[in-house]
Known about the structure:
Layout: H1 62-70, E1 105-109, E2 112-116, E3 127-130, E4 137-138, E5 166-173, E6 176-188, E7 191-201, E8 209-215, E9 224-231, E10 237-243, E11 253-258, E12 273-277, E13 287-295, E14 298-305, E15 314-320, E16 327-329, H2 339-342, E17 348-355, E18 358-366, E19 373-382, E20 388-392
Antiparallel strand pairs: 1-2, 2-3, 3-4, 5-6, 6-7, 7-8, 9-10, 10-11, 11-12, 13-14, 14-15, 15-16, 17-18, 18-19, 19-20
Keywords: Carbohydrate metabolism, Glycosidase, Hydrolase, Polysaccharide degradation, Signal, Xylan degradation
Protein name: Glycosyl hydrolase family 43
Signal peptide: 1-19
Amino acid sequence: MRGRALAGALATVALAVSACSGSSEGTPEAGPTTSEAPLIPEPTAVPTVLPSDVLAGEMQDLAKLAERLAQQLPQQKRPAPIDVAAGSEQWRPGVAYRGYFADPDIVRADGRWYAYATNTSHLRLPTLVSRDLRTWTPLTDGAGRKVDPLQPAGWVRSRGGGQSLWAPGVGKVGKGWTAAYAAQAGTSGGERHNCIGLARGPSPAGPFRPVGEPLCYGQAQLGVIDPDVFVDSTGRPWLLWKFSGVVNRRPAGLFVRRLNADGTGFAEGSETRELLTLDEPWEGDTIENPSMVQFRGVTYLFYSGNSWERADYATGYAICAGPEGPCVRQNHGAPLLTTATTGNPGPGGATGFVDGKSLRLVYHAWDRVGGLRRMHVAGLWQRDDGTLEVVDPG
C-alpha cells in the first residue's frame, strides 16, 4: 500500500454537494468545498524531522532541551491509576455500564465527563456520563429514560435509521458543541462507502442536529472515517480524520483541516493537511483513529494501527509543530500501547485528554479477542523532552 502520486483529478474531490446524488452503486458524488480546496490533496512527502524551533521530541539537541526546560511550563501531576468500575454489559439507565464501548471519545463540562463511542445498544451516539472517570452510567433524559442524543443526516444509508455510525468525535466549538461521525453513504465495489457528518447541539448531552453537507471522498473505496474534533490553545477548531487509502495507489493516512467558528463546516480558505501516512511495520495495512491534544506546550497526535479485529492492534503517537503539522512519530516509531505493555488485547481507538494537571488516554481493548471492546483509562507522563511514557495502562 505504499503510495504513488495520484492523477490531477484528486484536486476536484471534496465536500459532497448532495446527500441524495450518487453513482450507480449509491456512493455520493463529490464537489468543491466553500474554499475550493480538495478534501484530500495530492500526496506530498510527509516530514520525518520536526522544525528546529519545536522544543520537544526525540533527537532534540541539548541547547534546545535547556531552552524548553527554562520555559515557564505549567506543572504536571503524576496521574493516579484509574480502573473503570465493574458494571452491567447491558445498557440500562441508572446502572453502571461495562459493556461494548469501542473507539471512545471524551469531553468534560460542568463537573462531569461525557464519553462517546461507536454504535452499540441500538444507539447512534452511545453516551456515558461520569464524575470520577471510574463509574460510568448511560446518558438519560430528564425523566431518567434511555436517550440517543444524535439525529443522523438524511444522506446516512445504514440500517436501523443510522445505527451503524462509527468512531464519533465531540468538541465545544463556539457557543455550542459539534459532533462528528462516520456513516455509510452508499457502496463502492460492493463495500460500504463512508462519509463524515457534522451535527450541532447546545450541550455535550445534545441533542445534536445535522448541519452542513457530508464530507466524502469517492475515489477511496471505503471513503473517510474516524473524525476527531479538536480545539487548539488559541480557540481555533479543527477536524481530523482517516483517509482509507486507494489500493495500490496511495496508503491510508491521517488528515486535518480547520473548521469555521460555528463548527458547521470547514473554514473559508482552509486547506487539508496530511499529518501521517502509513509507514511502520507494526501498523500493518492501515492507520486510523486520529486524536489531537495539547499539553504543557506540546501538540500530540495519537493514532491506531493494524487490524482492529486482532490483538496486534496498537496505539502510537507523534509530536506535531501545531495542528497542521508537521508531525513526527516518537518512541522510535514503536507503538505506545500494545497488548504486551498494557495486558489488554488490542488497545486502540484512543483519545488523549487533559485531566487537571495530568495527561490521560481513554481507549478500548478486548476482554478477549472477538468478545467485547471495553473502555480503559491510561495515565501518561510527559518527560523533559516532551516525549511520553505510560504511568498506568488502565
